[in-house]
Specification:
It is built from one helix and 19 strands. By secondary structure, the protein is mainly β. It starts with a helix and ends with a strand.
């Protein structure tokens, strides 16, 4: 699903430019009267670990003549490039280089780069853009920065405990424990429960308002509230499964970034 999100995010980008780097040839010289500048923006702000983060780099010509220069974007250590459909851009590690055709006075060209925030990113992510190639008559607008704060993080883990054996048609209790491994408080923690080849009859130990409206009992969201570091919350999901093997999937959501998303979900098998 993640790669589908990335594909949709980059599909809307269609700015044609030329590649700066090996095989692309030299950057065209700047028109003598041209004043080119660069701006950089990032969205969303703030971000969480694991979020997609989009950058828009724009080169504009303040005139009075036409000109052209390349541009370079350096991403922070906490961001990796995952999407870019720009014919004139190439990335190497966290550096993206682009070359633009001649820009007329009063016009601009933009490119869009999609990144992903690393799980353990923290603080402020600062990206830097600058123009490259022959200098123009004004250098004060030849560089730009974009700062994106990262939401503080903690580690939420989900663990399931099931009976060794259940009987077809009988109600089977499954214990779901959600723990905050620290280092910060998570003030809004939600638990998502989904079942296959079974019916979720009820949930004990949490508020799950959608369960009463869901006649099939296939999916429910429960509100766990505030978890402190080193503490957890255990709820019990009561399931009635049919013939064969049933499954219960549980995943946690929180208001912070998560330093280890790999333990945010767990699956139990009912036999």
């Amino acid at each position: 699903m993640f790669f589908g999100v990335v594909a949709r995010a980059v599909a809307c980008v269609g700015v044609g430019v030329g590649v700066l780097g090996a095989g692309a040839g030299p950057v065209p010289a700047v028109g003598r009267a041209a004043d080119l500048g660069v701006t950089l923006s990032a969205s969303p702000r703030p971000v969480r670990a694991g979020d997609l983060l989009g950058y828009t780099l724009t080169v504009w010509d303040a005139g009075p003549g036409a000109g052209s220069r390349g541009a370079e974007l350096r991403l922070p250590d906490g961001v990796d490039v995952v999407g870019m459909r720009e014919d004139g851009c190439a990335d190497s590690g966290r550096t993206v280089r682009c070359a633009f055709p001649v820009i007329a006075a009063g016009r601009s060209r933009s490119v869009h780069i999609l990144g992903i925030v690393r799980p353990r990113a923290s603080g402020t992510l600062r990206a830097r853009a600058r123009l490259v190639g022959p200098a123009d008559r004004a250098t004060r607008n030849d560089s730009a920065e974009a700062d994106v704060p990262v939401t503080p993080s903690t580690d939420i883990a989900v663990r399931l405990s099931t009976p060794r054996k259940g009987r077809s048609g009988k109600v089977v209790p499954v214990r779901v424990t959600v723990a905050d491994r620290g280092p910060r408080d998570a003030r809004r923690v939600n638990l998502n429960l989904g079942v296959h080849n079974a019916t979720l009859v009820r949930v004990g130990g949490a508020k799950c308002p959608g369960l009463r409206r869901n006649k099939l009992g296939r999916y429910v969201r429960c509100f766990l509230g505030h978890l402190r570091p080193g503490h957890g919350r255990t709820v019990t999901a009561y399931l009635r499964h049919g013939r064969g093997t049933g499954t219960l999937a549980a995943s946690a959501e929180l208001d912070l970034s998560d330093t280890d998303p790999s333990d945010n979900a767990a699956v139990a098998t009912l036999r």
